[in-house]
Amino acid sequence: MTQEISLPTLASLEYFAYIDDNGEVIADFQGKIGVYAIFDQDKNLQFVGYSRDIYLSLKQHLVRQPQSCYWVKVETIERPNRTILENIENAWITENGNNPITNTEDKQKWINPIDIKELMTAEEQNNYQNIAIDEFAKSKVLKNVARRVEEEILAVIAARGVKTQIRFNPKLKETGLLDLK
Fold first, then answer.
1. How far apart are CA 174 and CA 177, in angstroms?
2. Please, which residues have CB within 8 angstroms of residue 128's CB and are 6 or more apart in sequence?
3. What local confidence, expressed as pLDDT, does residue 156 receive?
């Protein structure tokens, strides 16, 4: 929790439960700037990132990768400083050694909105490609697929006992993307 040159090691930080005893995404870092590391149920590192609001980022990651978000380690700083944040992020990745978090494709799943076109059933793909003849019809198909995927995601996190309110951006659904509002 410093802005000095000495970088905290990931191993030296304590684990926080991603979901607290009340079923809420850990709110200790709401509005806080810093670097965070996300771990799966077995405390294997899954992702390292930095944010101007760690809490909002943690909510996004929970929606995008719910099966991988069980523990988190955090280092906060007082003022935004990209160089410090990137140095901590890179040091943690290096400290962890060879890991899927350095794979660009895996990282995209953590940081980009969910592309629901990749999650379409065969029937939905057929409706989108062959039956929807204009842009309005295509956006309607995308919106319906987005609603289905959203329900699946919400069911997965509800099964984990999550009670944090999750709201998806409705305008993105018709473009084929799911992201929090």
1. 7
2. 117, 120, 138, 141, 142, 145
3. 96
Residue among 16, 26, 17, 15 at smallest CA distance from 164:
26
Domain locations in the chain as residue ranges: 10-111, 115-178
Name residues of the chain where pLDDT drops below 50: 1-4
Tell me which fold the domain 10-111 belongs to: GIY-YIG endonuclease (3.40.1440)
Q: Which two tokens stand for residue 90?
A: 């890179």
pLDDT of residue 67: 94
How many of the other CB atoms lie within 10 Å of CB of 142? Answer: 22
Could you tell me the CA-to-CA distances from 83 to 9, 87, 138, 149 in Å, in that order?
17, 6, 43, 37
Q: Which long-range contacts (CB under 8 A, 24 or more apart) does 149-158 make?
A: 149/114, 149/116, 149/119, 149/178, 150/178, 153/63, 153/66, 153/114, 153/178, 156/66, 156/67, 157/62, 157/63, 157/66
Joined tokens for residue 36: 């965070």
Measured distance CA(176)–CA(166) in Å, rounded? 18
Closest CA to 54 of 90, 80, 20, 83: 80
Single pTM value for the model: 0.88
